[in-house]
Amino acid sequence: MARVLSGVKSTGAVHLGNYLGAFRNWVADQDSDDAFFLIADLHAMTEPYEPSALATGTFDVAADLLAVGLDPARCTLFVQSHVPEHPRLAWLIECTVSFGELSRMTQFKDKARQRETVRAGLFTYPALMAADVLLYDADRVPVGDDQRQHLELTRDAAVRFNNRFGETFVVPEAAVPAHGARVMDLQNPTKKMSKSESSPLGTVLLLDPPEEIDRKIRKAVTDTDTEVRYDPEKKPGVANLLELLAAARGGDPATLAGDFAGYGPLKEAVSEAVVEILAPVRRRAQELRADRGYVTEALRLGADKARTVAAPVLDRAMRAAGLLAPAGGFA
Ligand code: ATP
Ligand code: MG
What we know:
Blueprint: E1 3-9, H1 16-32, E2 34-40, H2 51-68, E3 76-79, H3 85-94, H4 99-103, H5 106-113, H6 120-134, E4 140-142, H7 148-165, E5 173-175, H8 210-218, H9 236-249, H10 253-257, H11 263-289, H12 292-320
Parallel strand pairs: 1-2, 2-3, 4-5
Bound molecules: adenosine-5'-triphosphate and magnesium ion.
Adenosine-5'-triphosphate binds near residues 8, 181 and 193.
């Protein structure tokens, strides 16, 4: 069985992009692979946040993931800060990658441009992400298109570390899904739908009631033309709706375009398809938010399982890097 690892930042309410681009595939992965999923609460600290909202956000994301269908008996679902090996390995990675490489990360450049004060943690975040992956000897990392560059850095770091210190890490492959890999903001279809850069009307939340989903999709930005055609360059809004329909219902966006005579019927079909897939998730997520004991226990089990894998890998890496091992090892 291949080892698979993926993660989500606990920065806010999860949305349709997270679901179609990531979570839905994770549910399938837990049956075909040895799957690890982390809720990245340490990554959520790289930008300004409310301390009172951090724990709630982490809990809610966990409940949402369980609602989507992750099963603690079939996968390892855990919170990053519950496994202390993550920041420890991140240090070794920070000492493996360069300032220049981190400076070239487009996500960092985008986010840094928008702030007066940029936290060092935002800059070194890709090193922590590399540690998240490498600690589990992951063969495959399912990610959205937005995470491709960070994964490339992870691979470079693993190869460099192995060359310098001897075979230590498994070099992971990125797995980017064909459709739904990049769901765009409904109001600004050249920008991806996102948790942290929230655009309330442009973001369909996992827990939005059907009326709200319908309202947002009907208000989605298209263009002054009226022809339904799949052309991401010239018609990004329409292309996004077609991508959404293809992801939700199956099929190919360019072919689906032929079924619609205008934007109205297209939006109606997208809205119906999205409501249909999200309704059961929403019901289950609401139940789970009220069941703290179940969620907490699932996360305890997950952290225990994660540590049994992460601890020996950390020990291996610390020794390979040349550090003096304490009695009993680094774990
Ligand atoms: P943030 O704004 O905090 O970065 P995010 O919405 O980008 O939040 P992440 O926690 O960074 O979400 O990513 C979780 C998973 O969802 C990743 O696999 C990521 O590639 C995927 N993902 C995020 N946004 C989208 C999107 N718009 N379309 C498809 N997949 C997405
Ligand atoms: Mg993101």
